[in-house]
Amino acid sequence: MANTKALSHEERKTAKRTARKNAAPKAARTEPRGSNKKKVKSLSKGQSKR
To answer: Which of 12, 37, 44, 50 is the most exposed place for a label (fewest CB within 10 A)?
Structure first.
């Protein structure tokens, strides 16, 4: 993506949109989304005990 600091707002929008259209498509996911997220133990879910 080129430097768009000198462009006006509308020019910047069109430049970014064309860059998105011309970009190569992303590959399909190999693992499910959020699989690297930290897992929460079931005890800590829900309302807190006093």
So the answer is: 50
